[in-house]
Amino acid sequence: MPASPPSDLAFVPFVSVQNMMRLIHHRGIENALRELAEYIEEDFRRWPSFNKTPRVASHSADGVIELMPTSDGESYGFKYVNGHPKNTAEGLQTVTAFGVLAEVSSGYPVLLSEMTLLTALRTAATSAMVARRLAPGGARCMAMIGNGAQAEFQALAMKAIVGIDEVRLYDIDPAATRKAQRNLASTGLTVTACASAQEAILGAQIITTCTADKQYATILTDNMVGAGVHINAIGGDCPGKTELHPGILARSEVFVEYPPQTRIEGEIQQMPEDFPVTEFWEVLVGTAKGRTSDQQITLFDSVGFAIEDFSALRCLRDWLKGTSYFERLDMIADPDDPRDLFGMLQRAAPSEDAA
């Protein structure tokens, strides 16, 4: 009996890098960031309904490879992601990623996607979604310290979601700053290249730190940070990697995604285990306070959590409806009789005539 052609159940939508770029331009980058932020906020508001676990990390001297899983009981998602700071010197991306969304009821995947671009978008959308609640009212200027692959996404998300109109750039590599300045030139933002982190934060109400080196570092010293700012700390995201002086943490109201993960990976790994933090989802649902005064320093100690990737995949799946920005991959073995997987394989053997 000849092999049956694959059924529709065998095919999984796959979003390649090329199709992701086409899709984002189709929606508009700033609009896509706003829409992603809405999905992320919606899932933060139902935070207790998710299965949560710190990411599964494999560390080496070269970097880290991680799996980030979560489920809301109806859908399951995970992301594969790496972090290899040395890659840039070798002409490679520091971060690469892909992700899967699946149905809990059957276990069948319903979406496979690149997530290098999507992670950059969701990280920026999360930062801005939080800053919209924690930054001082009327914030118009952002300092972007670390001008690598994430910088432009962060600036555009803060513009689209928070309303900033000025970004001040600094990186220890002037070429990175020139790159970011060039890429942001036609976005409507006033862009200033600065010679130091100290210069970059002058007049900024939002300070974003996003450096890549895997080490304990002090990008911001305690005396650099005055009252009333919001700090978006996204570079410290694994054990042994920080950016802020502990004195800044001691003076700030610190907000996190998932404390068991952040205490291992975030800026607060420098602090005692009982150092007080607020889970940001509680701010959204009203069980905890956000910014309470103009003089308060708020700090989002963001390490990236699986629910944000789940939100991004959920958003992406909705974006794809009625479009052609995906391919159908024959990924799932789907025999006519689910008990006869071997028979399906046998029937696919080349015939003697074909040989």
UniProtKB/TrEMBL annotation:
Note the InterPro entries from the entry: NAD(P)-bd_dom_sf, ODC_Mu_crystall, ODC_N
Cross-referenced NCBIfam families: PRK07589.1 (NF005762)
Mind telling me what this protein is named? Ornithine cyclodeaminase
